[in-house]
Amino acid sequence: MQLTILGSGSAMPTPQRFQTSQLLELRNKQFLIDCGEGTQNRLIQNGIRTTRLNHIFISHLHGDHWFGLMGLISTLGMLGRTADIEIHAQPDLAKLLRPQIDYCCSDFPFSVRFHDFNPHKSAVIYDDRSLTVTTIPLKHRVPATGFLFEEKASERHLIRDMIDAYDIPICQLKEIKAGADFVTPDGQMVPNDRLTTPPTAPRRYAYISDTAYTERIIPYIYGVDCLYHEATFLTADAARAKATLHSTAAQAATIAHKAQVSRLVIGHYSARHRDTAPYADEARAIFPNTIVAADGTKIEI
Question: How far apart are CA 115 and CA 124, in angstroms?
Answer without folding.
Answer: 12
